[in-house]
Amino acid sequence: MTLTIMMDLNDAELEFSDLVYAYQSWIIAVINDEKLDSENKLLTNEISDDALNAMRFLPGEVTTAIETSLARVYDVDPDELSSILFPEE
User: Which DSSP helix (H) or strand (E) runs through 47?
Assistant: First the structure.
C-alpha cells in the first residue's frame, strides 16, 4: 500500500482535495506506524513533506476535523494522536 503522491505546489491543477489527501496520508501513516501492530511501516519523508506543505494551506479547522475523524476511525484517543503528530508542542 503506497500513500505517496509527491505533491507539486506549483501545479496549477492542484486542488483542495489533494491537500486534504496529503494530510490524511500522513496521519494514517503515523497511526499505522505508532499505534497499530503493523509490520509494514508507511511513513516516508515524502509523506511528511507533503503533509507539512499541505498544512500551510489548510485552515486549522480542516486539519483538526481530519485528525478527529481519523482518530475515531482508528480508535485512537485524539489527545494522544495530537501528541504523536506534534511531539514538541
Answer: helix 45-57
Which amino acid is located at 86 in the chain? F
Placement of cell 494530510 in the chain: 23
Condensed to tens digits (0 to 9), the pLDDT of residues 35-86 reads 887 888 999 999 999 999 999 999 999 999 999 999 999 999 999 999 999 9
What would the pLDDT profile of 13-44 be if each residue is shown by its tens digit?
A: 778 999 999 999 999 999 999 988 788 899 99
Write the CA distances from 44 to 29, 47, 60, integer angstroms.
8, 5, 23
Residue 53 CA to residue 56 CA, distance in Å, equals 5
Q: Hey, what amino acid is at 41?
A: K
Which residue in 34, 36, 39, 48 sits closest to 5, CA to CA?
48
pTM of the model: 0.83
Residue 42's alpha-carbon distances to 3, 32, 54, 72, 83, in angstroms, are 8, 7, 18, 20, 19
